[in-house]
Design a protein that fits this description.
The structure is a homodimer. With about 425 residues, chain A is of the alpha/beta class. The first copy, chain A, is built from 16 helices and 17 strands. The first copy, chain A, is elongated. The two termini of chain A are about 45 Å apart. Strand 14 of chain A pairs antiparallel with strand 14 of chain B.
Amino acid sequence: MQKLNQNPNIVLAEIITIGDEILYGQVVDTNSAFMGAELGKIGIKVKQITSISDEATHIKKALDEARTRADVILITGGLGPTKDDLTKKTLAEYFGVGLKLNEQSLVDVTEIFQRYGREVTEINRQQAFLPENCLPVRNVLGTAPGMWFEVDGKILVSMPGVPFEMKRMMTDIVLPRLQQHFGLPKINHKVIMTIGIGESFLAEKIAAWEDNLPPNIKLAYLPKLGSVRLRLTGLDNGTGDLETEMQQEVDKLSQLIPEYIFAYGEVSLPEAIGHLLKEHYLTIATAESCTGGNVAQKLTSIPGSSAYFKGGLIAYDNAVKVEQLGVSETTLQTFGAVSEETVKEMAENIRQLLKTDIGLATSGIAGPTGGTPEKPVGTIWIAYADAHQTIARKLSYNKTREINIEYTTMAALNLVRQSLPEIFRIG
Amino acid sequence: MQKLNQNPNIVLAEIITIGDEILYGQVVDTNSAFMGAELGKIGIKVKQITSISDEATHIKKALDEARTRADVILITGGLGPTKDDLTKKTLAEYFGVGLKLNEQSLVDVTEIFQRYGREVTEINRQQAFLPENCLPVRNVLGTAPGMWFEVDGKILVSMPGVPFEMKRMMTDIVLPRLQQHFGLPKINHKVIMTIGIGESFLAEKIAAWEDNLPPNIKLAYLPKLGSVRLRLTGLDNGTGDLETEMQQEVDKLSQLIPEYIFAYGEVSLPEAIGHLLKEHYLTIATAESCTGGNVAQKLTSIPGSSAYFKGGLIAYDNAVKVEQLGVSETTLQTFGAVSEETVKEMAENIRQLLKTDIGLATSGIAGPTGGTPEKPVGTIWIAYADAHQTIARKLSYNKTREINIEYTTMAALNLVRQSLPEIFRIG
């Protein structure tokens, strides 16, 4: 069905989350952010997010209000035996229908129990009974099926509040069905990951390119901890090959800012560095002072990182820098622990000690105390060393301890990308 | 003013957040969770959270709806020059009043600009103009003042969406004023931090104590990554000394579960371990395999941790375990890297290498790959060593890589607390 007003760009949605734990601040509502972003990607705009209590009257009131402003209503929470299936019962009442057994849902619930070698309980069997007027939405990861209702041309979908169950349902079933139902045009996305340049400087650098984007391609800036994601959204207007058209724009952009792009697509910096090292059979070791293990932690957060990460030393105390890492006492006394000289020795020495291709080091004052007039809090040195070169950079941050550490970690990983010989580069 | 129905326990609130960035999922709404939790602490119950778009008509509609169900309406967002002060203008329109200059707000704005050595711009001067019928709420951290309205016995407060500005306003001004306005009884909180026991087992162990709590003291379970926070909320009913009464209940609880309590008050486990080590002049070093630096990272996330954390080795590769950490090749070959024998050597050796009082080690299979039938993914060993003893524990998790690493880190830190000689204990 096409939307009545024939303008597919303004399908509006409302998200309703049910559960006291969100209202009382015991849980942060991350589900709605996921749904809002995913709906946006297929051209559906979220008009309101409403979080309400576990009460039937409140749910019905919220549904009435939502129907006055939205074409699509997505509900999460209030399903499952511990919630007494409140949402399901309330929806049946709201629509004035009974519950009937859905065979497929019963098979699904039974299968989940068999997987854990248990018998289906009567309570869980009840979960396969759904309002007569709904289309079930399969839940392959849990026992509470979703429900899809169509009323007066509006779509209402009820899903569990468990994030991974909801996400799987959205991706596999709800989003494609919404696209089809509203006859939404094909939308494409291309993501370009950048690092090392702030949002406003980036915007300036690519302003001319952005201004010349075709009218069916839009750009969004999505900044996060020192990295800026650029997302192109293309609307298929039937005049050409959208994929080719978008790739051309990405190519133009790549030529404008090659030094800041670390990946194409939704890839984190530790993942991108991991790919790069793995692809070229390079190994790495870390020597960290102020980051206290955070660089190693980020590198090893990636599955399979043992292929390139051999290990690291956290040389917090100066004695450890000297005795374990072999930094010269003269260097430490002459230049201090937070200096170009020290951080270079750290990177070079860890590389030799752990017999890796690359050594990466950090040393600085994360704060909140420990600063001096010459080296205030946020003064940080990072260094990269390989068989042919050692490169150091000075950073100056003026943030909290936590953010100083995070930014330094990102800058250190980025230094690997920037310092690798040309033939190993991504860009 | 006392609430009309004279039942101070049911003051109801609605939170309205204004801004497309939340609707489109670019930002997760953490403000509402903070406000919900803080209101709960003074006995105000959040009935609904409504996130709406940056549009005057939508704001007015939401206000109308909120007034039908709440005594208190807290609004965040839509203030400040970049937002065109939409919320302020809309509120003036909604109440049919004009804007007038608030001298104190102008002084505050001017002061903030002077701090950065800049002149107040005309746009920022406009921020000191507020709706005639409001009481200004000072913003000591930013240029947009908050606004407090009283209409038909209901309270409506508008605050900036910048989290740290909003939080400061809530804590310093809004919460105390709400308590006073509604004549809310004094409420006290006591938080007890536990680790090493799941919520349901904990609930069983303390069921009798919980059942016997005086009617004016309530208990809440707040679980988070392997740790469970217990929060007692006491209502001053004027019959005795609430503080003493609550402390007695905490004391009883302490005797029931001494082994699981790691702190009193809102203290994280790394902080608690840090206090403990610092207090007793003890030093620690880490030798990590599967946690990849996460234990050290957590320890060094605490300001001042250099007093007790000397450093650590991340021995990801077995060669690093042998060459840098001195784990015997025979041990590795006979028992494997993930074994009691290896992890004990790791803890003992890092302690000797870095000359610390305590050595802490982890070795395991974080996943998603690398498991075997005998040692499936999630098989993890941790060990603690001091001058007198070495203690190892086997863990078995069946979660994602990220959660396996987080749980192992918490368990390792907890092992320090559990293994320290009696005289150093907290409990």
